[in-house]
Design brief:
Strand content: 5-15%
Largest sheet: 8 strands, parallel
Radius of gyration: 28 Å
Shape: elongated
Structural class: alpha/beta
Length: about 600
Amino acid sequence: MTPMTAAEFRSLLAERTLVADGAMGTMLHAAGNALDQALPAISLSDPALVRAVHDSYVDAGVDIIQTNTFGASRLRLAEHGLAEKTEEINHSAARIAREAAAGGRILVAGSVAPAVSVHQRRRIGRAARADALREQITALAAAGVDLIQLETFGYLDELLEAVEVALGAVEIPVVAQATFGPDARTLSGHTPAEVASALAGTPIAALGTNCTIGPQRMLAVVRELRAHTDLPLTALPNAGLPRRTGPARFEYDIDAEYLVRYVRELLDTGASVVGGCCGTTPTQLAAVVEMAARHPARTTPRLAAPPAAPVPAPAPATAPSVAAAGSVVVELTPEVGATVDETAELAARLTDLGVTLLCVGAGTGVGARVTPADLALTLHQQLGVEVMATVTTWDRTIMALQADLLGAHALGLQRIVCETGSPPLLGDYPHVDGVWDVDAIGLIELLAGLNEGTDFYGLQLPAKTDFEIGTRINPGCRDLAQAAARARAKIAAGAQFLITRPLYDVDDLQRLLDAIGDDRPPVLAAIRPLTGFEEAEFLAHEVPDVHIPDAVLARLERAGAAGAAAGLELAAELAAAVEPLVSGLVIAPAQDPVATVRHVLAR
């Protein structure tokens, strides 16, 4: 492939805006890597992790991904004893990004930071800095990057040095990005106007800013840059300020709606490349991509090949409601090791039985699995079946929940089952606590607010959502008054339908419904056939707030090896018994979902 020139890159930016990716270092940090280590070296020690980060941004739809080479100069790597691996680290990082770039459909930017850290600056002179930059930039170009992206330069003299070195070392486009503080000045005290003036006349492909500040303050910097240069502009803000969560641990809480709103203004101001820096995530960048695709400045198709057209979501007026009397829902839970294709095949077999509504559960354990919302949307798009997804609040910030819910709604997911969730048991620490910004009631309130057109903090949204909001109630809870009070609190928060926890006794359900009162939304009873006496005994004695009647235990014990068949019979009998009390059923098979559904529906 013939390398792109600066003129060709500027011509491309004149035709349409491009979306760059978001944070690399923050994503690696979130995966458990300390920020004080040489993050570029992870391209050697854990290339799969770096590739996964790139893939997440590619899946988000960005046009440019940046190599994991920020701080990969010989001088910076020397602080970690890795100077002799400079070329190897840069080559590996460029190769990983190149492979993730989908055969050239996405541009790869070679990320180049200042050659020295702030602490090194006083003792390392210009010549040594230039040599280190030249080595890194040459290595990246040789490895096939499409452009060099000089980023997070806080000292104007170092940015000018880097531009001179890059332009002399390679013929591919060079993008120069300074970083500004909250006072709209660089670390060296220069204003955006002064930076633009200093770089005027150089054949760089674009000028811009990244890091340090969030989108609001970056907008002011870009406005000043725009007033003093005709070069294409780039703008990659941080996700606001980080919050310290522990020793050397930080997280960002900015929500996608806020980021998108300001990125839209950056485009209005004339930015040609937008994206994110520290703290920004693939979910947020996906929202930026969606907005940018509709922005007037983006007049032609993006570089990336367009995705297959999704199956349109049915209009709310014709979509079957969870609350419809006689509803039969089948719950599927994404299991560790199960592929999406395998789940889709199972779902297709269920629809052949006449199932028209699937609920994707949250699953348990620590293994990696597809999120319920993602799986539900995939099933809807592939099969056209109506879906709802369980969303748990455990280990999620309110901002992350809000961003993901808005994104899921934009893709057609309307029905949400709200749960608090529980942290999984982890090795030697079975009593590890969870992290919750909100519980299920708070999640219900969040969704109710989105339906009214406001976010969690009461700020107005561009449009209202139309979520159907469900939640769980527990007829098996030993404290009936507490279970009823919590159910009423969920209703007051905005729950529109209730689903029981797996039910094993019709009398438990009747008592809870009586305690809740007549002024309640529709209720669906969850039926999960027991697989035998061993499981039933475990649930009865080791799992809190699960009630298995003695008669059920005795019947399963008598069944012996035929316990699974007895469990199916018990489930069918229970379904028939609760039918007069509820608006529908949620069948949650433990084994052979097709056979289970066929048996229960044949009651």
